[in-house]
Predict the structure.
Amino acid sequence: MSAAVAATEPSSPRRPPPSALARSARSEALAALDRIGKEISLGRDEALFLEGDAAQYCFKVVAGAVRSCRLLSDGRRHVAEFFLRGDFIGLAAEPAYPFTAEAVTDVTLLRFPRIAIDKMISLRPSLGKWQVELLCRDLSSAQQQMLLLGRKNAIERIASFLLLMADRGHDAEHVSLPMTRSDIADHLGLTTETVSRIFGQLRSQRVIELRGASHVLVSDIDALEELAQAA
Amino acid sequence: MSAAVAATEPSSPRRPPPSALARSARSEALAALDRIGKEISLGRDEALFLEGDAAQYCFKVVAGAVRSCRLLSDGRRHVAEFFLRGDFIGLAAEPAYPFTAEAVTDVTLLRFPRIAIDKMISLRPSLGKWQVELLCRDLSSAQQQMLLLGRKNAIERIASFLLLMADRGHDAEHVSLPMTRSDIADHLGLTTETVSRIFGQLRSQRVIELRGASHVLVSDIDALEELAQAA
DNA sequence: CGCCGCATTGAAATTAGTCAATACTCGTGG
DNA sequence: CCACGAGTATTGACTAATTTCAATGCGGCG
């Protein structure tokens, strides 16, 4: 459905590709993919697509952030993923999108017709493998998130989330949180009030500092990892 | 990683294949796949593999049930999925299993070397599509489960779970629960006590009847759907 | 027939949620 | 440049849901 890791950085430190040859075939294929994308922009809170829409396109985040969410009939919401620069959205081969995707901030995207993607995948085996790898990574992180939602308490959830965001940003010290407290709450299965309180608690324990609501400075990453019960 | 729907029943009512031709190519390929599987048996609570093991094999459940789980360092556990007859385990293309898989009951499995599977996939495009579809389905149901874990209360979780199990069994009226209360609790992010209490509550509301701990009779499926907040 | 493990039930404790009020912040317009 | 205002975020007091701890019950297997 999406990539948790930037696709324009083919060699993640976590999962090096099997060989230099495969690596170059892949990055060439990904570059070719980029070339068929059309750049589009959306304002904050605008929808890329709604749950149930025919899945005509997939997207890659160029700048800004996107959230995917599902709703219950009475309005309760869960935010499954946040997509940052380089992440793919809607890569899964389903006839209808299984979730709604909305802009968290003003956002710039590359938009790809799914038909063209499927065609490229069927022509280039390296792209097919790339798709399967992204799906596997997403599945594994979804299961990690289930562990968090099912078994971690509020502090552990926030600490885990901050570590994840720290990992994804350029600077592990300065974590930027483009989403609102409410987005974070709906991602972690908490309320905005609880998110706020835990941030306050972490601040008073000198684990983090808050430089405005959307900028966290991690003062003590070891303490944070301790608190996260690193699985 | 796994199939939520039996692979030997190629035409699920939910997701019919695009064409009769593709359908027969796929079922032929799946039959060929079955032929390279070796039948093995495990006793209750024996592990198929542990989280972090090299992912040499994948498995298909012939009889019995399997659970996949992840642990926190202090022993808290989450059961990500239950695998029943026909489901595939470990189909994701990852170098190491990202979770532990254990027999819920005595179980019979087909075991496939991953190398052989990858080879078949690269030779037969229909198998590759099948793999991608299973991954997408798993990902989507993982996200559904995140919604459950993050936003549903205990009654809604149990009701949703019973409906899911009813759907997977042969008879929607008679639901068999081969796993213990503790397995169910760890799957739904609850405790065994809460699971028991909710079963009791549903029984006193005449929504279900309990015929022994592992056999539930659904007396009022409409009420159950109501309670599940069907997403 | 009697265990042993699992399931159920009860009472107390705890965590996170709810409701309500106040404080920021950032963007806008005077 | 500063003041204002809307939308967020934070904080507090209270409530409710689920967990925890502790017994008791039940059922299947030896």
